[in-house]
Amino acid sequence: MSLEIYQHPEEFVLESGRKIEGLEIGYHTYGNLNKHRDNVVWVCHALTANSDVFDWWKGFVGEGCVFNPEEHFIVCANILGSPYGTTNPLSINPATGQPYYLSFPQFTIRDIVKSHQLLAEHLGIGQIQTLIGGSLGGQQAMEWSISEPSRIKNLILIATNAKHSPWGIAFNESQRMAITADRTFYANKPDGGAKGLKAARSFALLSYRNYKTYGLTQQEEQADVTDNFRASSYQSYQGEKLVKRFNAYSYWYLTKVMDSHDVGRGRKSIEKALSNIIAKTLVIGIRTDLLFPIEEQEYLFQHIPKAAFAELHCFQGHDGFLIETEGLSNLVSAFFKTDVRGKIIELQQTA
């Protein structure tokens, strides 16, 4: 399926009170709504991904997978601020006729969710059979399930948290410092801050992987190497890849969006907010995850009423949920075969 664009006919009011005129949302759909309109699977994507979930989550979403177009109507929408079809800092500001750049209004996870709720209405979607997301996508899915609890039947939260941690915020601030150290970031041009973005991606990779990951994948084969190490070239290569497909302005704003995540804001407490989730919920953690430690997922499991917990066993760290799709599929399949109503259970990953 190709990218589609929804154009919102009214002004979009952000949590801050600021407004966006002419909001556009890029999205992909796969499969068809059944006659009961109860086969919707909505995927919330992470920081630099896009709405083409069949491309970046192969083996988990797609033909023959746990979530497939033969059985499900799968929706994935590009998030606000991301440059893959949705209004973002490089979009034209109707008030000036020029790109927003750093005049783009700051926004939050709740604003992203609100925009996707508008898209769901446009698509004629009432109940969502399964809402799923990992990392920043999990933050969105959680927020949606709290703001519209009766709309979500099943919820799958992967490698995410109820409030972004000081550790995670520090990683994001370090990345923003790298971006703003590149003075071209303030030049108001599409490739502004490109060198800073490359450095920021290098920081990010250290949080997405871990010591063992690099030891297994970037170890030198020869003992006499004294420069130009594999790990060095890997960091540079990954940074260049992101620069070619993203922009520093979107990245800068979206890291701030992640920092804003706190389901307890204005809701008395985090525990109170999580208690509002009525969906049958699967929380998945990864013990090797440095960025979203498994204790954060255990906390969600303890405070979401109808929750099950599963550990995805992998050495890759935070990005493991994008890589170990067979193990992830096994866990999700087991979840749908298990009655967790009112029970505290733990799912074991099968081979």
Automatic annotation (TrEMBL):
Entry's EC annotation: 2.3.1.31
Associated pathway: Amino-acid biosynthesis; L-methionine biosynthesis via de novo pathway; O-acetyl-L-homoserine from L-homoserine: step 1/1
Keywords: Acyltransferase, Amino-acid biosynthesis, Cytoplasm, Methionine biosynthesis, Transferase
Keyword set includes Transferase: yes
Subunit structure and binding partners: Homodimer.
GO CC term, one of those recorded: cytoplasm
Cellular localization per UniProt: Cytoplasm
Major location (coarse): cytoplasm
Enzyme's top EC category: transferase
UniProt keyword annotation of Transferase present: yes
Active site per the UniProt annotation: 135 (nucleophile), 289, 318
Family recorded in the similarity comment: Belongs to the AB hydrolase superfamily. MetX family.
Identification of the protein by name: Homoserine O-acetyltransferase
GO molecular function per UniProt: homoserine O-acetyltransferase activity
Organism: Mucilaginibacter straminoryzae
AB hydrolase-1 domain boundaries: 40-307
Pfam families named among the record's database cross-references: Abhydrolase_1
Reaction it catalyzes: L-homoserine + acetyl-CoA = O-acetyl-L-homoserine + CoA
Binding-site residues for substrate, renumbered to this chain: 201, 319
UniProt GO BP: homoserine metabolic process; methionine biosynthetic process
Function: Transfers an acetyl group from acetyl-CoA to L-homoserine, forming acetyl-L-homoserine.
